[in-house]
Write a structure and sequence with these properties.
The longest helix is centred in the last third of the chain and has 37 residues. α3 runs parallel beside α4 and α8 packs antiparallel against α11. This protein is 43% helix and 22% strand. It folds into 2 domains: 254 residues, Rossmann fold; 38 residues. The chain has an 8-stranded mixed sheet. It has a two-stranded antiparallel sheet with strand order 2-3. It has 11 helices and 12 strands. The protein is α/β, with parallel strands linked by helices.
Length: 294
């Protein structure tokens, strides 16, 4: 796998960028994080510049994002669509609804704080309507949304940003379900290529994707100018970019419709079984406790 620093990847795309500060301002509203000790940190704000550059370079019409979160990726991509005169839209999937409140870490200029807010509290108050009009929020889990994708009447997708669930089977589901709705020529950026407990992105890339695609591992997460890990010789976190214009084997042969359908069907059945067993666990436990009393 080819690997390079995020600064070098963005530079190679040769896209005029807005100021770094403007991305950091967006990040402070939508991507700031806190630690257990009460401190705060700017987590991989560089991905916003990378997403902006990729969208400006490849000019996709239909973008599919798995994992809206608080919206940093969506906002940076929609900004690129508008500022680069691209006739494109974003469909972003998340289990939390537009008005559903959550613990929200942000800095509006008065220092970082944690509040209880929703997308509806932040997006329309801080970002232009022209940006927000390019974003279509799809509320629900990716399994449900992608299962009924065909009923939405959306054209085939050109670009995906996969940043939803991080375990192996969830990220594999999101990748396979994107392949089912993608154009023959597409681009994908995977977030969170990291060897951490519970993360399956590395396994999916290494075991299944690398054999077909010429992947690029882009070292990121606080590696911009002057950032915390910029000079780290051994980065342990990255993003993976794949482009169908550069493949080792025809991707449609490696990931046939039959292969995709077989996995998606098995994965959905497995989840149904898991939910049924979970629903039975409590009453069974109550029966066993009752029998022990007798």
């Amino acid at each position: 796998m080819k690997s390079l620093d995020i600064k070098d990847k963005i530079s190679s795309l040769n896209i005029p960028l807005p100021s770094r500060k403007s991305f950091w301002d967006i990040g402070n509203l939508t991507a700031l994080r806190d630690r257990e000790d009460g401190s705060y940190y700017q987590a991989n704000y560089e991905r916003g510049l990378l997403l902006y550059s990729l969208i400006a370079t490849y000019r996709p019409k239909i973008i599919l994002e798995f994992g809206t979160g608080r919206g940093y990726g969506s906002i940076c991509m929609s900004r690129s669509l508008v500022e680069n005169n691209i006739d494109g839209v974003i469909y972003t999937i998340d289990s939390k609804g537009y008005r559903e409140k959550q613990n929200w870490v942000l800095d509006t200029g008065e220092g970082p704080a944690t509040k209880f807010l929703s997308l509806a509290d932040i997006w329309p108050n801080y970002f232009p309507d022209t940006w927000l009009s390019r974003i279509n929020l799809l509320h629900g889990d990716s399994i449900t949304i992608m299962k009924k994708w065909g009923s939405f009447g959306i054209p085939k997708a050109d670009f995906a940003f996969i940043d939803g669930g991080h375990d192996f089977f969830t990220v594999k589901h999101d990748f396979y379900s994107f392949l089912r709705v993608a154009n023959s020529d597409f681009k994908i950026l995977f977030d969170d290529y990291a060897r951490k407990p519970g993360f399956g992105i590395c396994q999916l890339i290494d075991d299944e994707i690398e054999a077909t695609f010429n992947t690029e591992l882009i070292w990121s997460d606080r590696r911009w100018y002057g950032s915390q890990f910029e000079s780290s010789a051994k980065p342990d976190y990255g993003m993976v970019f794949i482009d169908t214009e550069s493949t080792k084997n025809p991707w449609a042969k490696s990931f046939s419709n039959r292969t995709i359908s077989k996995f998606l069907r098995a994965y959905r059945i497995q989840l149904i079984i898991h939910k049924v067993l979970a629903s039975l666990r409590k009453p069974i436990g109550q029966i066993l406790r009752f029998l022990r009393i007798l």
